[in-house]
Amino acid sequence: MDNYEDIINLPHHISKTHPRLSIEQRAAQFAPFAALTGYEDEINLADIENMEKYDNIV
Hints:
Layout: H1 23-28, H2 39-57
């Protein structure tokens, strides 16, 4: 048996203990999140500092 022939025609499993998620709940799993809080603020601050240095040179 190769190519999953032993399981290919089995019915889809439906859990008896875990209810199905709504579309909104499923979408929330893939929503963006800030893994590093404050990171974007630091990047913006560094950008401002670099622009100020550049303005003083030119």
